[in-house]
Design a protein that fits this description.
alpha/beta, TIM Barrel, Non-ribosomal Peptide Synthetase Peptidyl Carrier Protein, Chain A, 2 domains
């Protein structure tokens, strides 16, 4: 698959997830075979006005390339300037958020609010396209009702404005993440515009990814929540696309990923801050394992790399003993 000048090795994308898809999490997805990873949603206003915490979200490494940086905002000039700065900072692809339905985002005229103001959406895309030469994409929802008319109209505007690919999450603004994603809308958007379409929504397994590709004709699949703590889903999708059976994930592999994630978090955030983050995030990686609840309880107060490493080692020994039938 190709997005503008960027060639992807396979049709898998890790979704931009606010507060989750930071550099350490993206590295896990990339190592598991994901072709394209996306930054957390970044405020255009914060990037232009130089907020240190906002600029931290642009932290990257060659190991995760290509990287798509997602911006949100409602002002065309502000988004254009933020796009220039993101491109200068090394973004390979620039993505504009047209799908976030959080109230504070809507109040700023950003996210899915732009789908209710198509003239301003066109102004945003025109300004950003003129500001950067790297590939430009957007991520959108169904719109404000179930008809899909908002999405189809925005898709055509995006094509006219020179957008290189679209990601479609077919839920309405009011649905949030509830209900079911209407995959038929992905197919309708695919038929409406001659640019790559990335399908998103309700992909929980490799089988779901294959079904979406087959049912909608989309060019790639974007996986979000199902990849949190389980990056192996990308490997499994790639296996299936190659005609192989999806390789089962061993406990040893899961613990190797946990250790890699801890190391990346420590490098990215520093030990004190990483420990605070890991108290909650490590729980994502042990979902479904024996005695996962005990491990989650044990990590609630971790305060050092040495401590977390010890807890992981002890938990791995417990899990492997149970798996091997050792009392």
């Amino acid at each position: 698959m190709k997005i503008g000048s960027i060639h992807l090795t396979n049709p898998t994308v890790f979704a931009p997830l606010a507060g989750i898809s930071d550099l350490p999490m993206r590295l896990q997805a990339k190592a598991a075979g994901c072709a394209l990873v996306c930054s957390e949603m970044i405020s255009a206003n914060g990037l232009v006005h130089g907020g240190a915490k906002t600029w931290e979200l642009l932290a990257s490494t060659p190991r995760e390339r290509p990287l798509s940086v997602q911006l949100f905002g409602g002002d065309p000039a502000m988004l254009a300037e933020a796009a220039r700065r993101a491109a200068d900072a090394g973004a390979d692809i620039l993505d504009i958020n047209f799908g976030c339905a959080v109230k504070k985002i809507l109040k700023s005229g950003s996210g899915v609010a732009l789908m209710g103001d198509l003239p301003r959406a066109a102004a945003v895309l025109t300004a950003v396209r003129a500001a950067v030469t790297i590939p430009l994409t957007i991520k959108m929802r169904t719109g404000w009702d179930t008809s899909g008319n908002d999405a189809l109209a925005l898709a055509r505007i995006a094509w006219d404005c020179g957008v290189d690919a679209l990601a479609v999450h077919p839920r309405t603004a009011r649905q949030g993440f509830g209900g079911h994603a209407d995959w038929s809308l992905i197919a309708r958007v695919k038929a409406a515009v001659p640019i790559p379409i990335i399908g998103n929504g309700d992909i929980q397994t490799d089988e779901d990814a294959l079904r979406m590709l087959k049912q909608t004709g989309c060019d790639a699949v974007m996986v979000g929540r199902a990849a949190i703590g389980h990056p192996f889903i990308f490997r499994q999708i790639v296996d299936r696309l190659a005609g192989r059976s999806a390789r089962p994930v061993t406990f040893e592999e899961r613990f190797a990923v946990i250790r890699d994630y801890v190391d990346a978090a420590m490098e990215y955030s520093g030990e004190p801050r990483a420990c605070l983050v890991l108290r909650s995030r490590l729980g994502w990686f042990v979902k479904g394992m024996p005695q996962a609840g005990k491990f989650r309880h044990a990590i609630r107060h971790i305060g050092s790399r040495h401590q977390v490493q010890g807890l992981i080692a002890a938990y791995e020994e417990t899990v492997l003993s149970i798996a091997n039938g050792v009392n």
